TrEMBL record:
Residues 1-65 are annotated as: Disordered. This is Molecular chaperone DnaJ. It comes from the Bacteria. It comes from Pararoseomonas baculiformis.
Length: 65
């Protein structure tokens, strides 16, 4: 016993994940996410967060390539 690479378990190569929330059909590779720099507050030490420009949200790439 010891051959996990050639066993014979078919794995679907289609990674179609559907969050089902605020997903834009135009942005299939990106998704809005809470800014990790400011935690979604949009501010860092009384200044606009440079990571999200004060929006508290950032667009992250969710491509599993
Ligand atoms: Zn931020």
């Amino acid at each position: 016993m010891g051959d996990p690479t050639s066993t014979g378990i078919p794995v679907p190569a289609s990674g179609s994940g559907r969050p089902g929330d605020e997903t834009d059909p135009a942005a299939s590779q990106t998704a809005p996410n809470t800014c990790p720099a400011c935690g979604g507050s949009g501010r860092l030490e009384n200044k606009p967060c440079p990571e999200c420009e004060g929006t508290g949200m950032v667009t992250v790439t969710v491509g599993d390539a």
